[in-house]
Design brief:
It contains two helices and three strands, in the order αβαββ. By secondary structure, it is an alpha+beta fold. It has one domain: 2-Layer Sandwich (Pantoate--beta-alanine Ligase, Chain: A,domain 2). The two termini are about 15 Å apart.
């Protein structure tokens, strides 16, 4: 089993949505141009459900953003 880097301990999709929006705003406030930030299930990259969150399904953060002319794409398992 892989160790999680971050444990959000989120139990509902509304909270995930708020985290995604706050992350986009935070990057934009620092001069980035975010294309997307999405928190998804690791197993199939589907949006998490309340049931999968409560079951502790592993998640991944997917993001792409531009800084100047450079576009960076990354993911982080959580």
């Amino acid at each position: 089993m892989r160790q999680r880097v971050i444990d959000l301990n989120v139990r509902d999709v509304d909270t995930l949505s708020k985290i995604e929006k706050a992350a986009v705003a935070s990057l934009a406030g620092r001069g980035w141009q975010p294309d997307y930030i999405a928190i998804r299930q690791q197993s199939d990259l589907a949006p998490a459900s309340n049931e999968s969150l409560q079951a502790g399904e592993p998640l991944v953060i997917l993001t792409a953003a531009k800084l100047g002319k450079t576009r960076l794409i990354d993911n982080l398992e959580i």
